[in-house]
From TrEMBL, chain A:
One of its GO terms (molecular function) is oxidoreductase activity, acting on the aldehyde or oxo group of donors. The keyword Nucleotide-binding does not apply. Gene3D superfamilies: Pyruvate-ferredoxin oxidoreductase, PFOR, domain III (3.40.920.10). It comes from Citrifermentans bremense. Residues 14-190 form the Pyruvate/ketoisovalerate oxidoreductase catalytic domain. InterPro entries: IorB_Oxidoreductase (IPR052198), Pyrv/ketoisovalerate_OxRed_cat (IPR019752), Pyrv_flavodox_OxRed_cen (IPR002869). This is Indolepyruvate oxidoreductase subunit IorB.
UniProtKB/TrEMBL annotation, chain B:
It comes from Citrifermentans bremense. Residues 523-551, 556-584 form the 4Fe-4S ferredoxin-type domain. Catalyzes the ferredoxin-dependent oxidative decarboxylation of arylpyruvates. [4Fe-4S] cluster 1 binds at C532, C535, C538, C575. It catalyses: indole-3-pyruvate + 2 oxidized [2Fe-2S]-[ferredoxin] + CoA = (indol-3-yl)acetyl-CoA + 2 reduced [2Fe-2S]-[ferredoxin] + CO2 + H(+). Keywords: 4Fe-4S, Electron transport, Iron, Iron-sulfur, Metal-binding, Oxidoreductase, Pyruvate, Transport. NCBIfam families: IOR_alpha. This is Indolepyruvate oxidoreductase subunit IorA. One of its GO terms (molecular function) is thiamine pyrophosphate binding. It is an enzyme of class 1 (oxidoreductase). It comes from the Bacteria. [4Fe-4S] cluster 2 binds at C543, C565, C568, C571. Pfam families: POR_N (PF01855), TPP_enzyme_C (PF02775). Coiled coil: none annotated.
């Protein structure tokens, strides 16, 4: 095993299932035999605040926070939040982003516009960028709320971890009644990567 | 067996493995999940107390009769618990007692970023500081050994990045050798009258000296010698950032941050060319190292404010930063009250009535945010009522009428009730609104004595707020539906006119309560496009389900997201044009 640490950032809006996706990622890496650390701030997040979760894995991980500018993958659940946290990504890093806009309070109130053309701006800054229509694929899998697992499937293709560990982690972390939909959502996402 | 656990989960596990019998807390971010996880172990009696002082007193009672007990709180909670804590330092313990205090550098969800290490020094008790989840588990177990061996309560300090970060942990078994609790009388030790306490003070001072010496050979205080040019003394999460940013540097990693192992520090200092202390918040270690005459660099390069990150440590040591900024300014995304939140109508009304709102700590502090902008003060838990009393004492009769204290159910029971007793007894005159949503919502929906369920999920006696207020001596007590704006306006304005104390209790549950039969959403509403005149009245409540679409119609129109709307009906009452109706 090399000493290299892989740094993943999950960003989006409170309530989008980011914390569960980060749990599944961490579990997968542990099952695959790595040291893993995960960090996030919650407390106010479920009330629609901006959320960022850090997941790092490798032979030995020290800080639970991805050092600024050293993210390998930015895994975004919402366009503006993905753009906001791009400075944490390393030059040439990968962006996998859900093609979804959620208006923050100032935009809801008509005081500020939601920034335009974010897809293009992200692609310009990060050529290795995959836009995912997470919402529609989740509906296709059977539940609009499974967009996080669709995205997880897309991310899984970029990481050199055997598929069986992903499936084992999903089975462990997702509630039984939602498992079938989530496995389907994961497969749909994985077919994009 | 290996598991990925958060620091909080690992502490709960450590308490289980240490044979803890009683765990008590008041919820507070980032400490809350510790007690939520001790409930996984039937062997531990876990409960939410009304406040941190009571939680510690429950822990002390269990300890005095021989059980190992765990008490948890956030940093500002230690201020509330400080009174019993300082004397507990004198009595010492019988069964081990561990107090977890979770600090919040960077104020992710707190009203200040105080450094609790000062409490350990002030109260003269040992403090451990783990640096990851594995250490959270191990240090918790070690804390009970130290507590019983040195007859002292022990504090264990975490920070948000320890409490809420997850890492791989190897689990152990619960100890089988802890003694059964039984009544043990020892008045000379446990009754702190001056005559007894004077003698105990010498015990306290000796204990700290002994522990400082013992700390030099504790494995949790360890020297990691690498390149000798730079030596860094550090602890907790700062250790991880130092290892990340300066992988070649020599490190003295402290697991016990009070008392400091001074001989070990001297030895480490003699082995390296230049000595640094890397610590978050106060110069706690640095000042003490300087006081024994060892030159050290610390706060000259590291801020007294905020949490550290690997990048901030790199910057402090003059290393290049990797972050590349995007120049563009994006709209912020602050937290907001939920769609259908029962607090929204009250804050809208208070704003309309131009009330001076003496606020408190909880979700409803978000009433401060625009467009509601209806909170004028917020200092600490329970302070709203006392502050309203003080303001009303000195204002002119006309201005006094504007003073309204707003407080949640859990916060009222925490320390607000004392303020209300004072207001009534001392003939204060202000309106107090108890926002009873039947849960401690901000920290993630914990039960409190108003909810009717214990942490162990047993049904129990729920506080009757009107009866409680009556017993205190409040004459004017009214209950309102906070989602009915006409009723809110009528009742609140009438009570504000009254030249004496009055209490208004709102009666709608938090929309996030999942327990069956407590919260039932109404039918989602929708904007009838043809009727919307673009007047923007519905935007004044700042509901996340209502969006302004500037490009629709001449002046723009409002739109309601049917997936977010909980059908609370408040926006419909604001629309003069009947443009908001039940969605078809």
């Amino acid at each position: 095993m090399s000493d290299k640490i892989t740094n993943i950032l999950l960003v989006g809006v409170g309530g989008q299932g980011i914390l569960l996706a980060a749990e599944i990622l961490s579990e997968t890496f542990m099952l695959a035999g790595f040291d893993v650390k995960k960090s996030e701030i919650h407390g106010m997040s479920q009330r629609g605040g901006s959320v960022v979760s850090h997941v790092r894995y490798g032979k030995e991980v020290f800080s639970p926070m991805v050092p600024e500018g050293e993210g390998d993958i930015l895994f975004g659940f919402e366009l503006m939040e993905s753009y906001r946290y791009l400075p944490l990504l390393k030059p040439g890093g990968t962006v996998i982003v859900n093609d979804l806009c959620i208006a923050p309070p100032a935009v809801l109130l008509g005081q500020e516009p939601y920034p335009e053309g974010l897809e293009l701006k992200i692609q310009e800054l990060c050529p290795d960028c995959l836009l995912v229509d997470g919402q529609n694929l989740a509906i296709q899998a059977g539940n609009a709320r499974a967009a996080n697992t669709v995205l997880l499937g897309a991310v899984s293709k970029r990481l050199d971890i055997e598929e069986k560990f992903w499936l084992e982690a999903i089975e462990k972390m997702v509630p039984k009644k939602a498992l079938a939909v989530n496995l389907k959502a994961f497969a749909l996402g994985r077919s994009l990567g | 067996m290996k598991e990925i656990l958060s620091g909080n989960e690992a502490i709960a596990r450590g308490a289980y493995e240490a044979g803890v019998k009683v765990a008590c807390a008041y919820p507070g971010t980032p400490s809350t999940e510790i007690l939520e996880n001790t409930t996984r172990y039937q062997e531990i009696d876990s409960s939410w107390a009304t406040n941190e002082k009571v939680a510690l007193e429950v822990g002390i009672g269990a300890s005095f009769v021989g059980a190992r007990s765990l008490v948890t709180m956030k940093h500002v909670g230690v201020n509330v618990a400080a009174d019993p804590l300082f004397t507990l330092s004198y009595t010492g313990v019988n069964g081990g007692l561990l107090l977890i205090c979770a600090d919040d550098p960077e104020l992710h969800s707190s009203q200040n970023e105080q450094d609790s290490r000062n409490y350990a020094k002030f109260a003269k008790i040992p403090m451990l500081e783990p640096a990851d989840s594995q250490e959270c588990l191990e240090f918790t177990k070690l804390a009970y050994e130290i507590s019983e061996r040195h007859d002292t309560p022990v504090m264990l300090r975490t920070t948000t990045r320890i409490s809420h970060s997850k890492s791989v942990v190897t689990l152990g078994e619960r100890v089988a050798t802890v003694a059964e609790p039984k009544l043990a009388r020892n008045a000379a030790k446990f009754v702190m009258l001056p005559g007894n306490a004077r003698g105990r003070h010498y015990v306290v001072e000796d204990r700290i000296t002994t522990l400082s010496k013992e700390g030099c050979s504790m494995p949790i205080n360890r020297m990691e010698l690498r390149d000798k040019k730079i030596g860094v003394i550090t602890a907790g999460i700062s250790y991880q950032h130092v290892r990340e940013a300066l992988p070649e540097a020599s490190v003295l990693k402290l697991g016990m941050v009070h008392p400091l192992p001074f001989d070990l520090i001297r030895e480490f200092a003699s082995k390296v060319d230049k000595l640094y202390v890397v610590e978050e918040l106060d110069a706690f270690i640095e000042d003490q190292v300087k006081a024994i005459g060892i030159p050290v660099t610390g706060k000259e390069i590291i801020s007294l404010c905020g949490e550290l990150t690997p990048g901030r440590v790199r910057k402090a040591f003059g290393l290049p930063e990797n972050a590349q900024g995007t120049a563009e300014k994006l709209p912020g995304r602050p937290p907001n009250m939920c769609p259908g939140c029962p607090h929204r109508g009250v804050f809208y009304t208070l704003k309309q009535l131009n009330a001076y709102v003496s606020g408190d700590i909880g979700c409803y502090t978000l009433g401060f945010m625009p467009p509601l902008s209806a909170m004028d003060t917020c200092v600490c838990m329970g302070a709203s009522i006392g502050m309203a009393t003080g303001a009303a004492k000195v204002l002119s009769p006309e201005e006094r009428k504007k003073v309204v204290a707003v407080i949640g159910d859990s916060t009222f029971l925490h320390t607000g009730v004392n303020g209300l007793m004072d207001m009534v007894y001392n003939k204060g005159a202000a309106t107090v609104i108890i926002l009873d949503n039947r849960i401690t919502a901000m920290t993630g929906r914990q039960e409190n004595p108003g909810s009717g369920h214990t942490l162990m999920n047993e049904p129990t006696n729920a506080i009757d707020f009107p009866m409680l207020c009556k017993a205190i001596g409040v004459k004017n007590i009214r209950t309102i539906n906070p989602l009915d704006l006409d009723e809110c306006r009528k009742v609140i304005s009438e009570e504000m006119e009254r030249p004496e104390t009055s209490v208004i209790i709102t009666d709608k549950p938090c929309v996030l309560i999942k327990k069956e039969g407590v919260f039932t959403p109404g039918k989602p509403l929708a904007v009838v496009e043809d009727s919307c005149t673009g007047c923007r009245a519905c935007l004044k409540i700042g509901c996340p389900a209502i969006e302004w679409v500037p490009s629709s119609g001449k002046k723009g129109k409002a739109k309601i997201d049917p997936l977010l709307c909980n059908g609370c009906d408040v926006c419909r009452q604001l629309c003069k044009f009947s443009a908001i109706q039940e969605a078809k």
